[in-house]
Amino acid sequence: MDRHLKETQIDSALAYDGHFLKVQRDTVALPNGKAATREYIKHPGAVVILPVFEDGTVLLERQYRYPLERVFIEFPAGKIDAGEDHLACAKRELQEETGYTASDWQHVCTIHNAIAYADEHLEIYLARGLVAGDSQLDEGEFLDVFKAPLEEVLAWVREGKITDVKTVIGTFWLEKILSGNWQLP
């Protein structure tokens, strides 16, 4: 069906091999037969957790992000380890970053947050039945954890106080789910 849009790999080379990210440089045949170069980041994928308390408030983090040199408000999230089950990763990341565990987990959706230059995918999970505990932050990880009403989080998105794409999308999903407009399977 979309054959007229498909690009076909001719050659592939690793342009950069970092600790966390890899950059691939491929030569492709375009649909018109001409050649082009495609550079993109190889990423193992990540999970995003939408932790919701019984009263409807949500659990968020404040974390400094070096590339943009500022603190961002985000939902808990983390990289999927090689061979790791997505749900197991979500449970691990929630506990490590926030100290909370959850008794009820539902997969919300998969998003691709940087399709022009990365193969990264994010698996979004809704977490309910939250129980507080001790966090176990990774070496070199520093963040604050706090609760906020969903209405306030929506206002922060609208005002541009929250710009992190996974948190913006997660907030919109939560609004639809908690209002009853969207049902999860």
UniProtKB/TrEMBL annotation:
<dbReference type="InterPro" id="IPR015797">
    <property type="entry name" value="NUDIX_hydrolase-like_dom_sf"/>
</dbReference>
<keyword id="KW-0378">Hydrolase</keyword>
<protein>
    <recommendedName>
        <fullName>GDP-mannose pyrophosphatase</fullName>
    </recommendedName>
</protein>
<dbReference type="Pfam" id="PF00293">
    <property type="entry name" value="NUDIX"/>
</dbReference>
<feature type="domain" description="Nudix hydrolase">
    <location>
        <begin position="41"/>
        <end position="170"/>
    </location>
</feature>
<dbReference type="InterPro" id="IPR000086">
    <property type="entry name" value="NUDIX_hydrolase_dom"/>
</dbReference>
<comment type="similarity">
    <text>Belongs to the Nudix hydrolase family. NudK subfamily.</text>
</comment>
<dbReference type="InterPro" id="IPR020084">
    <property type="entry name" value="NUDIX_hydrolase_CS"/>
</dbReference>
